[in-house]
Amino acid sequence: MRRFYFPVAAVALVAGLLPLTVQAQYTMAIRGGLFLPTEGILKDKANQWLGVGFDIHVASGFMKDSDTVLSADYLSHTFGGSKGSVFPLTINQFFYSPMSLNRFYWGIGAGATVADVQGPSKTVFGLKGTVGIELEREWFVEASYFWSDEFDEATDGRVNGVAFYVGYRF
Prior knowledge:
Number of strands: 8
Shape: elongated
Number of helices: 2
Largest sheet: 8 strands, antiparallel, barrel
Strand content: over 45%
């Protein structure tokens, strides 16, 4: 039952951070795609996982000429009752480069990763690297690499892998 509290906690975190963006101009985005784990413990569950995410882009963020992006991701190999869900929550910095009609972007982020893969759920430090391109004003494609600290000492379990997303910004 505990694993169902994590999506609620992620939404509460993002909702709690929304008032911080009221003074700044921001946009939101949703993403969906495929997560391919590179670590043994995650690959033992499944070679391909579902990946979905929600972002808040704050245009007047920490650094000039970039966006601060608050991200909540959900990576899972099943929607059933078995264990196998990961929730990376990160604060990212995105940098943009114009390319003809579209913009290319890359970003780096850090935060917490909640792993509910086997045994008790555990929250560990996590990193996220992202590259992407805007197809038009609203639509984009991106790839993100997730890395986490060890959440299971017995198996050296970590959340490492790449996610490929298609997203919509509104």
